[in-house]
Amino acid sequence: MTDWEHHYQQGETPWDKGFPAPPLADFLRATPLQGDILVPGCGLGHDVRAIAAAAPEARVLGLDLAPTAIDRARSFPPAGRERFTTGDLFALDPELRDAFDWVWEHTCYCAIDPARRNDYLKAVATALRPGGHLLGVFYLDPYDDDHRPGDGRPPFGTSLADLEDALRAHGFGILHSRVPDRAYPGREGRERIILAKRGEPSGT
Q: Which domain holds residue 112?
């Protein structure tokens, strides 16, 4: 199991690029997220602040296991009505269940042990209100010469078919799925941005 707190304490955070995920920034320009929004595995909170800045009335909660990440996230000037808390998505406090209109997924699904992906999607569904939306950029192919499937290190890849099957199995109807126009350098063409709705039949 990855010790995320150790990584943040040591400054070993290659996943932190210092700015919001480009697919999220593009989505927000057209469709700011409204209501109550959860960002699990928020790290230093770049995505949280982008969501909060795009919709000043939105209530955005950044959640992370690592206290050091949350402390650093809180050190940035506020962008809106965002807040940060240390916590475990797999053991949500009761007040965070059925509490959100949106969940923004970025780097959690690829970072956790693949054996826990069903638990992750179940937890996301538990956090969402009925009819709530999951929006995510999923890193399908994170592998290169230095990081190969089976070496036991995150990020862990997945196929699009397996990902979409898993979403449907947990009650998510897929409303939109495509390769994003922009990505962090090195991720071009390797990600998928997906919009899904809890409890709705699949769309195209």
A: 4-198
